[in-house]
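ASSEMBLY PREDICTION REQUEST
Request ID: AP-0331
Submitted by: J.K., bench scientist
Number of chains: two
Total residues: 402
Priority: normal
Notes: Please return the full assembly, not individual chains.
Input sequences:
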Amino acid sequence: MKYPAGIKNKITSVPVEKLEKKSYSHSHSNRGMLLEEDINETNKFYNCHDVAVIHKKPTPIQVVNVGNGKGDYSTITKAFFQSKSTTDYNGIYRNKYIDFEAKETKNKTTFPLTNFHEHQIRHMEKVIKHGAICFAIIRFTTRNETYLVKSSDIIFHYNKMDTTKKKSMSYKTIKEIGELIPLQFKIRLDYLPIVDKLFFN
Amino acid sequence: MKYPAGIKNKITSVPVEKLEKKSYSHSHSNRGMLLEEDINETNKFYNCHDVAVIHKKPTPIQVVNVGNGKGDYSTITKAFFQSKSTTDYNGIYRNKYIDFEAKETKNKTTFPLTNFHEHQIRHMEKVIKHGAICFAIIRFTTRNETYLVKSSDIIFHYNKMDTTKKKSMSYKTIKEIGELIPLQFKIRLDYLPIVDKLFFN
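STATUS: Completed
Returned structure:
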């Protein structure tokens, strides 16, 4: 997808998105570690260009103490990270509810299914039942390859774990059943054309 | 809606939901302050009974410091609340993306529209454009009355603010254009039948 000069600035000034302080420019060499950043940037592009409205859910944090005792109630002084009860991303695209999780592995030959929490798998099962577009974006960081895999396939392999004792999906399988998402400069990880192909045809 | 004995326990043990430590039982007298709790309990019921999958998004928190210096990296020692860029609740219902915000006011006669952040209004406009079911649940706490108001109506009145300088919607208007959500014992705030009526007919 092409966009006119100046749009890049427009994207990073979208008010609905909090901008990270760190720079968004990164070379191919460290791209593997920045899957979340790639997805967030892509979603900003989609949001800004009215293609879709998809957001990352904030990490749930249990706040224990607030304030420093000097009347400041805006600073959290004690809190804990909580585990997520759903997937990381959701929103709306082409009138449909869209829901996905992003995972990366340094492993070259297999993707460990234990990367998914049990309740994330159950969440995916539920939303599919209600008509969602649901998938996972899986990156093999050392290969610098990112695949979109339908959640129905993930769930199939996850549920087989109990009987086969095989707690992973091979790179070969993911390459076969998934779709490679091209890494690009302008739209980092342009996954919606693949969603079009897999879910709207 | 009726449900068999024992279901209440089943609901509160749903693993996908973090249970709050505070008791969920509360009398009519303090119901007004517990809109969020009422909605969360209702969503748990819907989720548990496969009616819909709707979750509250966690409050975004910017983590500044983690760990107490003794090798503990699970405790957050400094963080700040961030403002939300979207609405509080979203999910899927009857194949549709559903998105809403909950607000309460102690005011008896008017609902201040400044309760909505500008970016929440813009978010609602966007998701409506993409085909979402979008609304607000508004509670007048002193009246103990809760209304479901379509976001298109909220947006209409919000956008009028600039010209009319009227920064609120009257109770009378909300009573007219909204739908009263009955407060019940079993399903606290059974709002989906109203969604059926307003968005699926």
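REVIEWER COMMENTS: The first helix of chain B runs from residue 7 to 12.
SIGN-OFF: pending second reviewer
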